[in-house]
Amino acid sequence: MQRAAERDQRSQRAKGRGRVLVCAAAVPVVLLVAGCSSDSGSGDKSAGKGSSGGDTAASAGVSASPTVQAAAYAKLPDSCGVLSKKTLTSLVPKGVKSGKKGSSGDAGTRASCSWNSLDNNGVKGSQFRWLNVSLLRFESDAARGEGNQLAHEYFTKQVKDAQAVEGAKNAKWQTVAGTGDEATLVHYDLKKKEGSFKQQTVVARVENVVVTVDYNGAGLAGEKTPDAKALAKLAEQATKEAVAAVSAANGDGSAGAGAGTASPSPSKPASKSPSPSASASKAAKSASASPSSSASKKS
Length: 299
What we know:
There is one protein chain. The chain is an alpha+beta fold and 299 residues long. It has two domains: 1-52; 79-298, no CATH class. It contains five helices and seven strands; from the N terminus they run ααβββαββββαα. The chain has a seven-stranded antiparallel beta sheet with strand order 1-2-3-7-6-5-4, with helices on both faces. β1 (100-101) and β2 (110-120) form a beta hairpin. It is globular, with a radius of gyration of 43 Å.
């Protein structure tokens, strides 16, 4: 009986150990499954965060392209047609039909026209006049800036160049009202062997276009020197008319009359001014070339 009881106890202990081993063996499996499940969930969440962060970074890195306001004026008028016959008759009495266009690679951006007049009074001498109108249009550019600002910078350079012409005497400048957005008159005397020349340069800006009018007169071979104030008034009139022509060519009839006052400024002619016609005397050729060539060297 006692032995039988001991065998039963040993048998029960053996069964107990077996259950413990089975349970112990099952634990790693549960942990392994739980671990895999945890890693999988963690990986998905991590991937999601990475994807979201990448999208945010990508969107943050995108910046808007720089833009500038389009230039107001898109074209230029015919350079030899900006002045009326009446105005030309006042400035170049004997040269209304002498208009000659300057060479330009792009007439829509740069243009010019010049006229010359020689009124021969025989032994009393001759009255010489020379006129040049230059037009320069600026486009807006993302790298350089808006057309109006570029035109203003050029306007300023033109005025400074006109004030610094080599050999100029008694140089003075003044603003011109009622002509474009800003306008300046520079006038000076230029003494040459043919005579004393009275030079008038008016520079005006209307929106993104710069108009430069060069006008000079001289009494040759004994003729009296023309009145500088009279020449200046004619040059201003021509500039106002040219500015209005630019505005009209772009469908704006009011911009040309805008009152503008500006500090000394703008630049050289859009193209070299052509020499007077063959009918003019040698003295007249020299007279017309000198003032304009000096300005070109400075610009």
